[in-house]
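pasting for ref
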Amino acid sequence: MNGPEEGNTAPPPANNPLRAGGLQKTITMAQIAKAAKVSQGAISSLLNDRDYGIRVSEKTRERVFKVCRQLGYVPNDLRAVVRMYPEFGDFCLLLADDIPGGLQNPMASRVAAHLQGRVGSYSFSVGRYNPLTDYSDPEHSLPDPVPTGVSSKVLLLGTYNASLAEELSRRSVPAVCIGASVHSDCAPCFAQDYAQAADLALTQLAQLGHPDPVVIVPPAESSPEGPHILAVAEAMVARAGRGAEGLLIAPTTAAGGAQALNWLRGISPKATAVFCWSEETATGLACAAQGAGVPLGGELSIVACSGGQAGALTRVEMPFESMVAEAVLVLESLAAASDSARRKALARAPLRTFPARWIEGSTAGVHPNRGAL
């Protein structure tokens, strides 16, 4: 493939409006340099994304790329195309290394599925990043596939890494982070509203006649938000009026849910409802209860905190689909903006929390008499 400085006017992808016309004649670097009032060396530096000893300011970069777009210049090198027309670059999903199981993690798999359903004709790739790595250090390259240069819109999932967000911003690659409760002027952050989810679960259970549910929470170290979830779970138990017996820490597995049933049988007062912060645990508990002949929605109600694929479980559903849909819109808007406009937008982008919603299932109902398990 020829170098990006040897641009041509070959038709861009079908979804690119430049395909419609205005590309009849070859555009030379000399023409671009003259129109942008810069040297050909500066243009070569920009198109190749390399430092040839020529300092190119942000304003000059914007002016050159604006001229290229006006002239209908389309480089041969795909990386240069994406730098010049970032709105047509790929989406990239980067998962934090501390998300257990990677794409097999229920949260990660749902975010990926929602992203795939939202990006339309664009493709997207998946990579991993280390939340503890200092990506501003030249010894650490940006996580794959970002260095390939064909991704211009990045969705970060998991623990926030400030150096990664800053490096992406410095390279004019917009990013949005899902699952991080932080304020950032480099990447808008979207977070689940765990406190609202807890309040919703307790309110709905109280209306069903379960004022003091037991809460089952994953080990704090099992996820980036583990400590925060544990704190919210402790607040739930305190509000429900139970003591230490109102909180159980159990593995986020079906086996963990099955083991929880034995523990529930031994506490007093007997539990009429259980809220599980893990739907895998809730599923295991529901299966074990049914196997033991415990009527679900009768003697025992089970509610799960879910990402949206919990089957028959009654659940408080976390809004991953809404978060991804909003993230795609934000990334497309930021990719199409100039560097200065993007910076202004990021400077006033607040941390956003997305509320959960109550989904009726078959595992929770009105308890008639507070009887034993």
